[in-house]
Specification:
Helix content is 24%, strand content 26%. The chain is of the alpha+beta class. It has a four-stranded mixed sheet with strand order 10-11-15-14. A hairpin with a 2-residue loop joins strand 10 and strand 11. The radius of gyration is 42 Å and the shape is elongated. It starts with 7 loop residues before the first helix and ends with a helix. About 8% of the residues have low confidence.
Length: 384
């Protein structure tokens, strides 16, 4: 033992007068905290784990504990001249009155044992698959049927999913009896330690295939391309997903298939713009249409609709066509269609057109420009 070792009571975090139950409880907590299964390749945790075991080995044995309390490390370490053999402990292989170290670890680390490990031959659900598809704006509004190509794991057609070639069979692994794991015991510095590890003979599968199927290499599954006809409902929006139950990878050992998730991308439309279940359209009006009013044709997702624009319509005015929007998914009601108009100012006027426009302009009065008059009235009020 090294000279720089910590006091055993300090290691376990208990007082010198601690009871056997307090010492045992402290050991269980620290052993679980620093156990190598929880800290693989962590040298610091490994060192602390050994330190905790050494302290418990001494303090759990009444004879060794009495000598340690009286003589310190010299009472339990032969290197200090006192000799540990007289106490009847027989070195650090046992745990005194508390029994074999393996039993302690079995109660603390039962979660690492075979009892909680999943049966490798139990039915397991297949994993889900996610694919994408793109549709047009109108297809999203009306709904569409699409053929989706999917590469997914399926039961091998040659061996029927068994993994064994024709004429051979699958056998239960004799080493693990089909569990996929085996228990091993190892003698260490701190006693007998038992572990549950993956069976090396069957690789954790619990089964042995002497003659593997050539198509799937004994796995029982192969990846194959498949086409699925999918109905995309009317009203679906960009980025939404559809779920096809059982359309994912096949399950193992008779387990169910996973699901297929299809992410829908909706391509933008040059005329329509979507806002929830409403549709918006910008429509240009001529100067004359806006001033005099006119019957215009409005494109909607259901076709052309006539609409009468009243005289004096201003740029930016929005008209609502109720119920002409997008059908709501799995419902009968629909959104609305909104038409926003803007006035296009004519360009490239001829001399005659300019002259006529000036003459027309001269006929206009203040009452013909309400917004203009209101603006200048506010301006006068501000700077008077």
């Amino acid at each position: 033992m090294a000279d720089n070792k910590r006091d055993y009571y300090e290691v376990l975090g208990v007082s010198k007068g601690a009871s056997d139950d307090e010492i045992k409880k402290a050991f269980r907590k620290l052993a679980k905290q620093y156990h190598p299964d929880l800290h693989p390749d962590d040298k610091d945790a490994e060192a602390k784990f050994k330190e905790v075991n050494e302290a418990y080995e001494v303090l759990s044995d009444p004879s060794k504990k009495a000598k340690y309390d009286q003589f310190g490390f010299a009472g339990v370490d032969p290197n200090y001249g006192a000799g540990a053999g007289a106490g009847g402990g027989g070195g650090f292989g046992g745990f005194g009155g508390f029994g074999d170290m393996g039993d302690i670890f079995d109660s603390i680390f039962g979660a690492f044992g075979g009892g909680s490990r999943q049966n490798p031959n139990a039915p397991r659900r297949g994993s889900d698959i996610e694919v994408g598809t793109a549709i047009s704006f109108m297809e999203a509004c009306k709904g569409v049927s699409k053929t989706i190509k999917v590469n997914r794991l399926q039961k091998c057609p040659d061996c029927g999913g068994s993994g064994a070639a024709a004429g051979s069979s699958v056998k239960t692994c004799p080493d693990c009896n089909g569990k996929g794991t085996v228990n091993i015991s190892q003698q260490s510095l701190f006693g007998m330690v038992r572990q549950t590890v993956k069976c090396s003979r069957c690789g954790g599968r619990g089964k042995i295939v002497d003659t593997p199927c050539k198509k799937c290499s004994g796995k029982g599954m192969v990846k194959m391309a498949e086409e699925k006809e999918v109905n995309i409902p009317a009203g679906i929006d960009d980025g939404q997903q559809l779920r096809v139950g059982g359309g994912g990878n096949c399950g193992a050992n008779g387990g169910p298939n996973g699901d297929l998730y299809i992410t829908v991308t909706v391509r933008p439309d040059p005329i329509f713009e979507r806002d929830g279940y409403d549709v918006w359209t910008d429509i240009p009006l001529t100067y004359g249409q806006a001033a005099l009013g006119d019957e215009i044709v409005v494109p909607t997702i259901d076709g052309k609709v006539k609409y009468t624009v009243p005289e004096g319509t201003q740029a930016g005015t929005v008209f609502r066509l109720k119920g002409k929007g997008i059908k709501k998914v799995n419902r009968n009601d629909r959104g609305d269609h909104y038409v926003k108009v803007y006035v296009e100012i004519p360009k490239n006027l001829s001399k005659e057109q300019k002259k006529a426009l000036k003459e027309f302009e001269q006929t206009l009065e203040t009452k013909n420009y309400q917004k203009r008059q209101t603006f200048f009235d506010k301006l006068k009020e501000k700077f008077k």
